[in-house]
Structure formats: C-alpha cells, structure tokens
Design brief:
Helix content is 31%, strand content 26%. The chain is an alpha/beta fold and 383 residues long. Strands 7, 8, 9, 10, 11, 12, 13, 14, 15 and 16 form a ten-stranded mixed beta sheet that branches. Strands 3-2-1-6-5-4 form a six-stranded antiparallel beta sheet, with helices on one face.
Length: 383
C-alpha cells in the first residue's frame, strides 16, 4: 500500500502543469481536454489557461498512478476512471478509444474549509429566514431531497444541512465516492466499490443501503441518487426512517420527483406506477432546489413541500414555501435576487410542533399578508 503522503507528492508531480490550480482555493473545477487545452472554473466562470501537458502520454501516466492508488482498473477495456485525489478532489477521466482526441479529465475541487450557514447567507444563496426554516425542517426529521444541475452546489448545501441534525443522532452516509462532510460526532461513512478485474467483489449503493437499515440509523444520507437504489430510499422513507437526505440531478422541483420515479423503475421490483408515485409523494417531504445563476453564482431557487399525489389527475402536488425572485442585473454584471417566502406554511406543522419546533416568525407574517391569495389557490401546483 502506497502511503498517502507519497501518493500526494507523486500525483502532484505528474499533474505539474495544473498544480497551481489544484492549490488555488478559488478554483472549483479543472478540465483537461487533451494535452493542449486546459480550462478552469473560478467564481462560477470558465477561463482558458495557457497550461499544457507535454503529450497525451503524460496525462495517462498521471491517471494510471491515480488508478493504481485507488485500486481501480483503467485501460482500453476499462476507459472510464472515477477516483479521489489525496486532497479529496473528485476526478473523472475518459481515455481513447472513447475520446479519440486524447484523454479527457475533469477534477472537481472542494473547499478545504467547510461551508457554513453564515457563508451561504452572505453569498445570497439563502436568506436568514430561509436558513432558519431549513434548520427547523431538518431538525423535524422531514425527508429532504436537494436537487440541481451539475456544479450547482448540491453537495455543499447538503453538508451544511447535515449540521442542523442533533448531535445525538447516528448518521450513516452512503456514497459512490466520498464527498459528503457531516459535521456531527456520530457518523458512519460507507463507500460503494466496483468489481475487480475478475468481475467480483462489487458492492453497490443498494447493497450498502440494505445493510444500513439494520445498523440502527437515525438518519440516512445518500451522497447522490442516480440508479435503482431510489426505490430502496423511498421505501425507507415511508417505513419510518425519517430525516433521510440525498441529492440528485434535476432542474425544477417537479422534475425532481419525475427523476426519482424514473430511477426507482430501474429496480428489479415490479410495482404498479400509481403505487410507486404514491410512495414517492408520501416519502419525500421537502425539495430544496439549487441552481447556478447566469452570473455563475450558486443559489437556492425553491424550497418546496410535497403535498401528495392526486390519483384522478395523475399528478404530484407541490407547494412552494420559498421561491427566488429576480430584480435585475447590477452594474458589475451580478444578478440581483432574493429567496422570499411565498406565504404558504407547510402541512406538516403538527409534526414539527410535536418536537417542540416552530417556523420563523417572518413566515407567519408573510402568511397573514397573503391570506386572501392563499385561500384562493393555496400555492399548490401540480407536477
């Protein structure tokens, strides 16, 4: 086994052309499109660089080193590599023949300093009222999905939200590649494993999830839901495992449930579609939608409650608790926007009050101001 310190120095040597970007805290992504094109993302915007590798073989040497250390096969028969660098950065690489023009690498970097609530409020991603509301919803053990596009800040927000869980909770985290950083004392982390060169030894997210259910979890967190494990997660949500959280790729709250439904249908369990939809609507309580804004900033765009599934119309029923309103573009090109309460109060208020929790006063004030509108449409939208 190669010591981590040796591996760290070795891989930095192989990645010398981009070493400065790997050590720059402002850089969030490094994209290597062959030896002669390297692009970085800084402050949400893409920048071309003058950095170059000597050849495709130089990139391949670095990738083989990463694969060797992480115990993964990486060759023409296995041309996709998903791994983690010593500093925790996530690496995804694809090589010929899949990419005829040479190796293609994307390195997602994560801040060494854990984001906290105050940072999200200062950056405008959340308001103090929305942050307080999310804190109450998490403490109330509501099941929550954080959804958004690639690079929208799903995992960063998930890390912050886990900090609202009581310190006494036993939290089990399941991931393909370790990214979630739970700032709580009682945490068990599990990581899926691919099969070896003989096709043996694979441990899937579904395998880990089933094992987790017998390990007395107070909360189960899935780093990213992207396959048949969606059905297991939904069934856990409806069978008494409150406080589940996970992320998935979706653009709007209504798409989040559709994506979850589609992934659940990938499982080997034959379930009537209506029954599946009713379980999803019953299991998922809240959707937190994050987005990358036009100016490159990342922000929460919706906090939406899932009210249920209407059999007659065949639609999920959603109610926005917070939505982001746009107010124009500032002189420096940044978008002016704010996440504001809609005046709707969650239907699960009794569950929150049973735990001695209550919503921010500002949400009640907004509800009183918008009472006529709420009485008319209750801020319910079909999805």
């Amino acid at each position: 086994m190669i010591p981590n310190e040796v591996y760290s120095q070795t891989i930095l040597g192989f990645l010398a052309p981009v070493r400065a970007y790997l050590q720059d805290v402002a850089v969030s992504e490094i994209m290597i499109n062959g030896p002669s094109q390297i692009v970085i993302e800084r402050a949400g915007r893409l920048e071309n660089t003058s950095a170059r590798f000597e050849s495709s073989e130089a990139i391949l040497c670095a990738l083989r080193n990463v694969a060797q250390f992480t115990g993964k096969r990486f060759d023409e028969l296995n041309p996709i590599l998903e791994a983690r660098l010593p500093d925790g950065s996530r690496l995804e690489a694809v090589i010929p023949p899949i990419t005829p023009d040479g190796p293609c690498v994307a390195i997602r970097r994560f801040s060494r300093e854990s984001l906290d609530l105050s940072h999200l409020v200062r950056s405008g991603s959340l308001t103090e009222v929305a942050a307080e509301a999310l804190s109450v919803l998490v403490q109330g053990k509501l099941n929550m999905i954080i959804a958004g596009g690639t690079g929208s800040g799903k995992t960063s927000l998930l890390n912050v939200l886990t900090g609202f869980a009581p310190e006494t909770d036993r939290i089990i985290v399941i991931e393909d590649s370790k990214e979630v950083q739970v700032q709580r004392p009682h945490v068990v982390s599990m990581e899926a494993r691919p099969a070896d060169e003989h096709g043996q030894g694979a441990v899937s997210i579904r395998d880990l999830f089933r094992a987790t259910l017998r390990m007395r979890p107070d909360r189960i967190i899935i780093g990213e839901i992207r396959g048949a494990e969606a059905l297991d997660i939904v069934q856990a949500m409806v069978s008494g495992h409150g406080g589940c959280m996970g992320t998935l790729h979706a653009t709007y709250p209504r798409d989040t449930l559709t994506r979850l439904e589609t992934m659940a249908m990938m499982s080997d369990v034959n379930m009537p579609l209506t029954a599946l939809r009713m379980q999803i609507a019953s299991g998922v309580n809240v959707i937190v939608q994050v987005t990358r804004m036009q100016d490159g900033s990342r922000a929460v765009s919706h906090i939406t409650e899932v009210l249920g599934f209407d059999i007659q119309s065949g639609r999920y029923q959603l109610r926005d608790l917070f939505v982001r309103k746009l107010f124009g573009v500032a002189g420096d090109g940044t978008l002016r926007s704010e996440l504001v309460p809609t005046g709707a109060l969650p239907s699960l208020m009794p569950q929150l009050r049973e735990r001695g929790l209550d919503l921010p006063v500002a949400m009640y004030a907004c509800a009183r101001e918008s009472e006529p509108a709420n009485a008319k449409n209750q801020n319910i939208c079909d999805a």
